[in-house]
Amino acid sequence: MPMSKLSEDIKAGFKAVGGEWKKAKKNASNREDRVHHFRISSMRSYAPRFTLKDAAFMFMEQAYNKASSNGKFYANARQVMYAARPLIIGVMGVNVWNDKTAIYFQTLLKDYIEGKNPSMKVVWDARGHLREPHTKHEIGLGGAEVMKYRRDQTGSVNEAETVSFDTQIRTIGPTNRYGAVLFIEKEGFDEQLEDAGIAEKWDIAIMSSKGIPNKATCDVGAMVGVPVLALHDFDLAGFKIVRTLRRGTRLASGINNLIDIGLRLEDVKGLDPEPVTYNQREDPKNYLRLCGATPEECDFLAYKRVEINMLSTEELIKFLERKFIEHGVKKVIPDEETLQMAYRRAVFCQEMEEKANEIQIEHEDLEVPDDLEQKISDSLAENPSQSWDEAVWDLADEENMP
After folding, report:
1. Which of 326, 355, 386 is the last residue of a domain?
2. By the 8 A CB rule, do 261 and 323 touch?
3. For 27, which DSSP code?
4. How far apart are the C-alpha atoms of 227 and 255, rounded to whole Å?
5. 8 A C-beta contact, residue 73 and residue 314
6. CATH classification at residue 203
7. 196 and 227 fall within a common domain
8. I need a labelling partner for 154 at 20 to 30 A (CA). Which of 15, 161, 310, 395 fits?
9. Domain with 391 in it
């Protein structure tokens, strides 16, 4: 029997049996046996479509664990996205992924955190800044910065505040403080690096920017006079960023002691690259060669690219520390004369702390003016730019002068 005839016979058989079942269910005298026509219609429909959201939610925890080493480190949203991408493509096909998918994933990640796992240590790039009056304390408007700001908030006053001196000597610039600069071509890694203590452990300053470096970025890199280690994506834009740092801009000179630490071809082995297309007529290999890419790198980058975010945070930390060792980054220890001065300062400050605390104990019973609030109000009316605690300080200085 031809296959088409067999198929028609099977359909006819199901239709005949189904018709009788439908009639019986609709007209059943027993309410429990009766099936509403809406239910019958729904049984004809296809199974629910498996969506990108379904796939993302299926693999979100697994992708987050990979990017954060099971919550050991912070992970930024793009690291989680790159960890999830091959898993999603595996069940939905390569055609599901494009630039819009990558953007939509950020929304799905927020939905997942909000509804499933609010404790995830995921951060997004800061999209602005908040600066307090008087204290000038500033935070970036990114996830981790806001969480830390909420955790650290305080407005209490300790009237017997212990007087103490900074254990660290105040410095500005690299002298006696840092011996190298880590430049990252994008923002969004501050929390991960801070959590791992990279800057303090290696005495290295960290600088980042978005897009092609501007005059200020080149000026700072050239001014500090210490090696600048550049970390960048393995793509054409990454090579262009390194070239700009090295050559400078129209109004700024380049960084003479710039070191390209990758990503390069040998650094991305084992990582899952993503396809890339170029909206230009000229062969991108020409510019890549101009930027110092090898022939093998040119062939790779003609069709593919690899972002720093494809590394988990733990992989990134290990990569950076390996590069630091390779290029001689180490802790800063000043010369003998500076160390002797620092030692004498430490002894002096510690003795001053002890004497200051003795004075505080003597002032525990100090009388406070009865009309203190009115005096502070009058002072602020006269000098609106002053803060209330500055006004208190000035009043105490005025009324307790010897």
Report:
1. 326
2. yes
3. S
4. 9
5. yes
6. 3.40.1360.10
7. yes
8. 395
9. 367-402
